[in-house]
């Protein structure tokens, strides 16, 4: 599990296709992964991945075709930066909301507005995700726990404070940039339950 509080930006230094997967070599900031062990979970742009090997600040991950097709890791290239968060521990403070690292789909930034020192991002998402969007609800965007400002016809808007712009890759995003979307699990459970109950009543 993850808290959605991005711990920083890492850099993809090597991308090697290997049959049905891709091996990513990722360089992390000094001191951020000193105690990481093989088999540990780290989220990259909100995608939960398993540590395969480590050498200093560089960690290798294997990414399967499903993740490559469903998330922006499929289009990331050598030199690109990604958000990272290490798996939470039992005693960690949950400053955002719980994320699983299981991305639902990719969205796309369609418009960026400057708001003083911050920014407002308009994000378009696939139609199947839109029933789970609620004003003031939680959303995971590239692994960052964010609050939806408003729901639009094809997606939602989020506002980013300077800290978020500085710590995450969203600060350097442009219009057209793909972003990984994770729906809040509690929101998904409530919506799915209500829809199932209503469907059963209509059939009875």
From TrEMBL:
One of its GO terms (biological process) is riboflavin biosynthetic process. One of its GO terms (molecular function) is riboflavin synthase activity. It is an enzyme of class 2 (transferase). Pfam families: Lum_binding. Keywords: Repeat, Riboflavin biosynthesis, Transferase. Residues 1-97, 98-194 form the Lumazine-binding domain. Pathway: Cofactor biosynthesis; riboflavin biosynthesis; riboflavin from 2-hydroxy-3-oxobutyl phosphate and 5-amino-6-(D-ribitylamino)uracil: step 2/2. Gene3D superfamilies: 2.40.30.20. Its EC number is 2.5.1.9. Lumazine-binding repeats lie at residues 1-97, 98-194. It catalyses: 2 6,7-dimethyl-8-(1-D-ribityl)lumazine + H(+) = 5-amino-6-(D-ribitylamino)uracil + riboflavin. Catalyzes the dismutation of two molecules of 6,7-dimethyl-8-ribityllumazine, resulting in the formation of riboflavin and 5-amino-6-(D-ribitylamino)uracil. This is Riboflavin synthase.
């Amino acid at each position: 599990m993850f808290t959605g509080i991005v711990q920083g930006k890492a850099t993809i230094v090597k991308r090697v296709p290997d049959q049905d997967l891709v091996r990513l070599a990722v360089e992390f900031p000094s001191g951020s992964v000193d105690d990481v062990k093989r088999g540990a979970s780290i989220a990259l742009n909100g995608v939960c991945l398993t540590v395969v090997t480590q050498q200093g600040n560089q960690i290798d991950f294997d990414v399967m075709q499903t993740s490559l097709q469903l998330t922006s890791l499929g289009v990331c290239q050598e030199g690109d930066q990604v958000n990272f968060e290490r798996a939470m521990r039992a005693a960690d403070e949950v400053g955002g909301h719980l994320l699983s690292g299981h991305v639902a789909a990719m969205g796309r930034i369609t418009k960026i507005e400057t708001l003083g020192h911050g920014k407002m991002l308009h994000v378009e998402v696939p139609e199947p995700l839109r029933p789970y969007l609620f004003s003031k609800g939680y959303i995971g965007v590239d692994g960052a726990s964010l609050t939806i400002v408003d729901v639009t016809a094809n997606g939602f808007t989020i506002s980013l404070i300077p800290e978020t712009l500085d710590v995450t890759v969203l600060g350097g995003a442009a219009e057209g940039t793909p972003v990984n979307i994770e729906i809040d699990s509690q929101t998904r459970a409530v919506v799915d339950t209500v829809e199932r109950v209503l469907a059963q009543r209509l059939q009875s």
